[in-house]
Amino acid sequence: MSDLLTERTAARPNHRQEEAVRAKGVSVRRKRAVTLGRSLAGLLTLALVWETAPRLGLVDAYFIPPLHVVLQTWWEMVTSGELWRHVSASLVRSAVGFGLAIVLAIPLGAAIAWYRPVREFSTPVLEIFRNTAALAILPVFILLLGIGETSKVAIVLYACFFPILLSTISGVASVDVQLLRTARVLGLSPVETFRKVVFPAAVPTIFTGIRISGAAAILVLIAAEMIGATAGLGFLINYAQFNFLIPTMYAAIITTSAIGVGVNYGLVALERRFSRWRA
Amino acid sequence: MSSRIELTRVRQTFLVRGDEDRALREFVALDDLDLVVEAGEFLTIVGPSGCGKSTVLDLIGGLATPTSGRLTADGVPITGPGLDRSVVFQQYTLLPWRTAQANVELALEASGGLTRRERSDRAREYLDLVGLSDFAGRFPHELSGGMKQRVAIARSLSHQPQVLLMDEPFGALDAQTRERLQEELLSIWRRTGTTVVFITHDIDEAVFLGQRVAVMSARPGRIQEVVRIELDQDRAGEEDLRSSRRFAAYRHHIWSLLRQQQLGAEQGGDRDEDRELSHV
User: Fold this and answer.
1) Which listed residue, of A117, A260, B4, B176, carries a Cα 20 to 30 Å from A168's Cα?
2) Gene3D superfamilies, alphabetically (chain B) (predicted)?
3) What is the tens place of the pLDDT at every residue in A219-249?
4) Can you give B5-40 as a three-state secondary structure string?
5) Please, where are the H alpha helices in A63-115?
């Protein structure tokens, strides 16, 4: 016990180091405030340019209305419930596609990675699929599944599936050999080894795929809704543009961006939560 | 709480690709190796790198099967890993997403037959044994290298193996931490009475820890000589055992054995040397 105390004492930095750490701590906090300030300034600049450029006649105010007009329209759409109708339609589709992709891709990826021959057999095929833009095969989906909900969910599923699948494969396949040896020495059964060692080790890598998919889910869905749909943000953007409801179009676009940013932040936070031990 | 390990005419060969012709060739890692580890003994194995020390450990641990020869633990042939033999590796092999306590529990989850409560108690008991009870809730990245290795030792001991196999477990630690852990390991060994096979390339470590030191030669791997060490370990805490005359004599003896080997290899293995150079 006494030697533990010495270890802790020995591990303690000397005065100069401690001061340096303290000084750094202060500057870290200040740095964070400065960073935040600058980010806000950046956003504000964007808003300001959008507001003033049409007013000063630099761009046609009909095609790019000032920001406050767009925001006004946006608020009207929020209060009338119209926006929510489209947002919920889009969210449901992307959530279902995204969820299905997670549920299907993770077990499949784990199985592929666990059996080396299967992995080597399927990797090139999967690479081809992954690098085929989801939108390129949207016509195929519409052809096969019609223009209803199914084809839209399917396209989201397709877009989300491969990033998750491939990250699961690489995560499971690249588990530290030393950990596997330890599991063998400790007498863990193959199932236990997978559940207690391999899968937890792969979670951070899998999450990278999930994050990429989250962004893809919304991106692809908007495009799909533009082609054939009666509700959804993509439909709304396209419909507004056809009918020269320019502020409505921008309001829908802003909403899309906001959802994208929100989803991404949420997934990044989750990812951090799940890979805290990597610190 | 301890087993006798016996290796009889153990031979291990691997197929390796030659440097020049890319043809598969047989590489003899261990050649007719005989070794007996008595029950409850602390045996260290020292040898130059690449002499097959770790191969010996893998074989006893059941992580590899010999090309020919016989390995037994208490007369029973070793066919695979078993909970009667536990291994501590050089690299830290704790699961980084589990706390120290949960890492020790992992070993108990596999052996089965214990309730959650018993596992937790047992894990605490063994963390206490290695002096880490205050750090049970820490994650590996919050522990120093020495502490991580102590957790690994606690984990290996927690399922009460008959034999503890250690593959240069202190190799990555700084000198002071290493010496302290050596002393702690000896006291743990005295308390538990487990058979310990400890591999190292550090002569001092081998002499300090072992009741006997098996000196290995390389290419092919063989036991060159087994040196019995008689040092008054009980007084290790009071005086600097490592600077005693007897210690120095043992150290020098083993050093000379390894040196001889090296010279012999340089004379006899000129061709080998050339190939290595051209490869570099």
Assistant:
1) A260
2) P-loop containing nucleotide triphosphate hydrolases
3) 888 888 888 778 889 999 999 999 988 999 9
4) EEEEEEEEEEEEECCCCCCEEEEEEEEEEEEEECCC
5) 67-80, 82-114
Chain B CB contacts of A12 under 8 Å are none
Structural domains present in chain B:
1-84+163-267 (3.40.50.300), 93-160 (no CATH)
Which candidate, B98, B88, B156, places its Cα nearest to that of B127?
Answer: B156
Amino acid B125 reads E
CA distance A49 to A26: 35
Strand partners of residue B85: B163
Q: Which of A179, A187, A192 sits opposite B93 (nearest CB)?
A: A179
User: Residue B216: enclosing H or E segment and its boundaries?
Assistant: strand B212-217
Residues recorded for chain A: 279
Tell whether omega for the bond before A204 is within 30 degrees of 0, i.e. cis.
no
Report the C-alpha gap between A129 and A158 in whole angstroms.
9
Contacts of B131 (CB under 8 A, 6+ apart): A1, A3, A4, B150, B184
Bridging pattern class, strands B68-73 and B5-17: antiparallel
Q: Does A179 touch chain B (CB under 8 A)?
A: yes
**Closest-CA residue of chain A to B111:** A187
* pLDDT at position A127: 85
Homologous superfamily of A67-278: MetI-like (1.10.3720.10)
Measured between CA atoms, how close is A207 to chain B, in angstroms? 15
How many percent of chain A have pLDDT more than 90?
Answer: 28
Q: How far is B82 from chain A (nearest CA, A)?
A: 6
Q: Choose between A196 and B92: higher pLDDT.
A: A196
**Predicted pLDDT of residue A101:** 94
C-alpha–C-alpha distance, residues B6 and A76, integer Å? 85
Predicted pLDDT of residue B271: 46
Q: What is the DSSP string of B126-183?
A: HHHHTT-GGGTT--GGGS-HHHHHHHHHHHHHHT--SEEEEESTTTTS-HHHHHHHHH
How high does pLDDT run on average in chain A? 85
| ipTM summary value | 0.75
Domain residue ranges in chain A:
2-55, 67-278
State how far the Cα of B107 lies from the Cα of A223, in Å rounded to an integer: 52
Q: Which residues of chain A have a CB within 8 Å of the CB of B164? A: none
- What is the least distance, in Å, from the CA of A235 to any CA of chain B? 44
Determine, for residues B81 and A278 on separate chains, whether the beta-carbon distance falls below 8 Å: no
* Best residue of A8, A186, A197 to probe chain B, by most B CBs closer than 10 Å: A186
pLDDT at A20: 67
Contacts of A143 (CB under 8 A, 6+ apart): none
- Please name which of A219, A216, A222 lies closest in space to residue A236, comparing C-alpha atoms: A222
A78, with CB counted inside 10 A (0-12, 13-18, 19+), is middle
pLDDT in tens, A63-88: 889 999 999 999 999 999 888 999 99
Using 50 as the pLDDT threshold, list the residues of chain B that sit under it. 269-280
